[in-house]
């Protein structure tokens, strides 16, 4: 039997990126979403940006993509804007936001469960059905995808809070210890 050391590392990376409170890169997905209200989730900071709700839908969609591909579905794809970022209402209510967060959580669980079915690292070198890259590339891709969009969520959250969507003011400290308008934000990488 081939060892599963790499698979264990990938699962650890996926879990750290998603929910760790001690990730070296900054906030995990769960930490970034903490405190996002339905009102914030549905607000657009400019016409050409996605909302936090759309980003959460998008992250969920690509986790589902990974699960379907690991299940051998060569035809499953995300080909339309509705499948990619959703066709969400302009105003997100409590129920819609809770559903989006729950679907993201369930998609994470499904992804980890699908990986837990594997006994060794051999499948990581197999080509993903319907694609020209390996499972190894796909799984590291979803980690990078999460990090990229988590950064966007943190920036959107700060912008929405600063613009008055929340109760903070320019001299208030945010949840990561940063002061808006501070000249000492050099250590604030999010």
UniProtKB/TrEMBL annotation:
UniProt superkingdom: Bacteria
Pfam families per UniProt: DinB_2
Residue ranges annotated for the DinB-like domain, each copy included: 30-153
Gene3D superfamilies per the UniProt record, alphabetical: dinb family like domain (1.20.120.450)
Name by which UniProt lists this protein: DinB family protein
Organism lineage: Bacteria, Pseudomonadati, Bacteroidota, Cytophagia, Cytophagales
